[in-house]
Amino acid sequence: MRDAGARNGRIGFGEGWMLALCLVCFGAAALGLFWWSSPRGAAGWIRLAASAAVVLLAGGIAAPIVTRALLRRR
To answer: Cα 30 vs. chain centroid, distance in angstroms?
Structure first.
């Protein structure tokens, strides 16, 4: 079983650059669309803060649920 764990670690490490690249690309595209469509001034900053709060809240709720589900599956 030890070899399977090492193999999975190597697979995750080898494909990690693709995940990071996709996250950067899609994040830049989302940031560009947000910047292009948001209002200027205080309303834009308020919308940005609200969006960041929603993303952090969703990540803080969804991430533990997904992690528990994946760990329970083992």
So the answer is: 12
